[in-house]
Amino acid sequence: MSDNNTPKSTKKPDLIVTRIFDAPVELVWKAWTDPEQVMRWWGPKGFTSPVCKIDLRAGGEYLNAMRSPEGQEFWSKGIYREIVAPERLVMTDSFADEKGNTVPASHYGMSPDWPLELLITVTFEEYDGKTKLTLKHSGIAGISDTDRDNMQQGWNESFDKLAESLKS
């Protein structure tokens, strides 16, 4: 039995960002899996990535830092759940401290509604000698529209930096 007062689902769909990179799949894959290369593009415009550690195996972990223009560091970490080189990466995604301990988003002044763990799936497809990359960020149902918009903007700005990095 239902009535018109039952709220409709407010679950937000996954965030999906697709981008074509003017580089072969193997190079784009390496840009995601080689710490030295990740440090060239990780983070939105104006941010740097002073630390990136990657243990690229199922069950292996990554730990990244991105530093804002004002000097604030934001750490993230995750566990690789699936690696199919050079086609697919699946990994968890959480905020962390510099030691790799999971921390709530509120640790960085963000909403306490932000989930402790999200899931990132990245696919790499050959596309006319270029690479079609599709990123899916799952588990964001509880975040605000503003946080979702900021997340999308951050990925797009990171991908702009990735495109530049792939030119060199």
TrEMBL record:
Residues 22-166 form the Activator of Hsp90 ATPase homologue 1/2-like C-terminal domain. InterPro entries: ASHA1/2-like_C, START-like_dom_sf. SUPFAM superfamilies: Bet v1-like (SSF55961). Transmembrane segments: none annotated. Belongs to the AHA1 family. This is Activator of Hsp90 ATPase homologue 1/2-like C-terminal domain-containing protein.
